[in-house]
Specification:
- The protein is mainly beta.
- It has one domain (43-159): Beta Barrel (OB fold (Dihydrolipoamide Acetyltransferase, E2P)), CATH 2.40.50.
- It is built from 3 helices and 8 strands, in the order ααββαββββββ.
- It has helices at 5-11, 43-48, 68-73; strands spanning 52-56, 61-65, 77-86, 93-99, 116-125, 131-140, 143-144, 150-159.
- The strands form 2 sheets. It has a 5-stranded mixed beta barrel with strand order 3-4-5-8-6.
- β1 (52-56) and β2 (61-65) form a beta hairpin.
- The longest helix is centred in the N-terminal third of the chain and has 7 residues, at 5-11.
- The protein is globular and about 35 Å long.
- The relative contact order is 0.19.
- Residues 5-24 have low confidence and may be disordered.
């Protein structure tokens, strides 16, 4: 008696008839033109990204030189959208970093040094992957060992 490959696998108990293809499903192909990461395109990021960043490796210090548009916003009310990046593993916090790109995406490009803002708020928050709008007083920081060149104080944080 000659067995073909399928008959052999069925008789050997390696394939159960009718269930051999249950692991396969049809799925729609992703749109190749769709963005591969989540990024906030608030116009404020364009202004903040114009800062010229340099690194002094001997001192372990990053510095930024701001253009006139950014300098004009220093100490003034500022609103921008972005994603929450907690600074520690606390259940709730009032201090975090707002980033232009979603940091929970393992395949997304990292944020530039000019795409992160240190946020200080009086309201206790918990981490979510939602997009946020943050309003408060902008502070420019020319030298930073952490590489964060912007801060927003007295922030009001809301989901978008």
């Amino acid at each position: 008696m000659t067995l073909d490959r399928r008959s052999f696998l069925i008789r050997a108990g390696l394939v159960v008839p009718g269930l051999a293809l249950t692991g396969f499903t049809q799925q729609e192909m992703p749109d190749p033109g769709a963005p591969v990461h989540i990024q906030n395109d608030d116009p404020g990021w364009t202004i903040l990204n114009r800062a010229k960043v340099s690194i002094d490796e001997a001192k372990g210090l990053m510095t930024a030189v701001f253009d006139d548009a950014a300098k004009a916003m220093d100490g003034k009310p500022f609103t921008i959208g972005g994603f929450m990046l907690p600074l520690d593993a606390s259940q709730s916090f009032t201090h975090f970093v707002l980033t232009r790109r979603n940091t929970t995406c393992a395949f997304c490009p990292p944020n530039e040094p000019t795409e992160a803002i240190e946020i200080f708020t009086d309201t206790e928050l918990s981490f979510t992957q939602d997009e946020y709008r943050v309003a408060g007083t902008l502070e420019l920081v020319g030298e930073a060992s952490w590489g964060l060149f912007y801060r927003i104080h007295d922030a009001i944080v809301e989901t978008m």
